[in-house]
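A reminder before we start the practical. When you read a complex entry, don't treat the lines as separate problems. The point of joint prediction is that each chain is placed relative to the others, so the output describes one connected object in space. Small molecules and nucleic acid strands, if listed, are placed in the same frame. In the example below there are two entries. Take a minute to note the order of the lines before looking further.
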Amino acid sequence: MLREGLGDLGLFFKGYALVIFLTLAFCAASAWAVEGVPPASSMPWWGWPLALFVTCFLLGIVAVPSGVGGGVLFVPIVGGFFPFHLDFVRGAGLLVALASALAAGPSLLRGGLANLRLALPMAVLASASSIAGAMVGLAIPANVVQIALGTTILGIVVLMSLAKKSEFPDVPAPDRLSAALAIHGVFHDAARSQHINWQVHRTVKGLLLFVGIGFLAGLFGMGAGWANVPVLNLLMGAPLKVSAGTSSFILTLVDSSAAWIYINKGAVLAIVAVPSVIGMMLGATIGARLLSVLKASIVRKMVISLLLFAGVRALLKGMGIWI
Amino acid sequence: MGDNGHISIEQQRYATLLSWGGRAGLLILVVSFLAYLSGLMPAHVPLDRMQQVWSLSLAQYLAQTQTPTGWHWVSLVGSGDFASLIGIAVLCACSLVCLLAVIPIYARRGDWTFVALCVVALAVQLLAASGTLGVGH
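Here is the predicted structure of the whole assembly.
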């Protein structure tokens, strides 16, 4: 028993050491990026894409255990600390979120953790509004987008710090719309070794909120899991795991429609997008494997701190105070 | 994740196609990007020039690099930077195929609400992909 306890303690310290290492790596990367936005000639062309790959790899590692999508971390951090114009960062951000959602989507659908009937009505509205968001984002000055992004990120920090989650919300009866659309399901909860039946309510309010969520996703080029999950879980009453899975699946539709706008406007640069996508996906693979080692609450606090820093940075950059 | 007997047939079909589409897109993305980086494919904008233009606004970038907008990039897929866009386009188009594939299942079941939802979702995706929506700084 003592050996088991010591083993747990060792595992905890290994996880804690890894979190500290990741924090220091982020701080070093940020400091380097902030101080070192160099004149074009002082660094070989491959320096920034390589730094981008490493940063996204680290972001991918923390994205999984912290429970936030990589896309929401990508745009404020890369937009704030790398020399790429925000238009290209947002285009890449959508692809990062899309690729992550595509990687996870099939297994979530097969396992019943994402539900097509719940996702489709939300995704249709959010996709349409994400197009509008992308169009507006590419039409207004970058500093205005930066200020709005900073404000939104700070709002996300508050949401992540305060929002509660409900694993199995109580939904006494489905509302008329969800009953008409037959939005209900059953998923296998491996932790409890049982099938869980679920249904939802407040569908109209949920649909309206998804219009706004889609708009923000297109505007800022971020995945919108941070907003999808609370709406599906806390408002509509879907179980937490179904909410998280369905949120990820919804992003496959929402982010692809917004990404088309960025592609067609020439706002997707392969040299920015591809290292980001590959780095994030490799990092997420490692992050998923480290789930049992990393202490999720510590990683989550670290991510909230990072977002707070990146949100303030975006706000000040947009105001011209901290260029 | 346990047995999947409780997962609807349309959801299983959607998952299978999404899986294959995602894999194909990523494979094309990685291969074309390696060809671009290694110089096997020439670049429309030389890699050593990217550092001077990636901090420009989109409008300035397009003007300085003479990069086309809309679907005109397809005519430049012989360049490594635009070849990478094929993989990205495949990733974005995955959902189109999946939506098309589940419509017959809903139709056979007489679930016309979800047939309509799939058609609207398809229309939204196609509208976004069409390149007809004018935007700009």
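Discuss with your neighbour: The radius of gyration of chain A is 20 Å. What might explain this?
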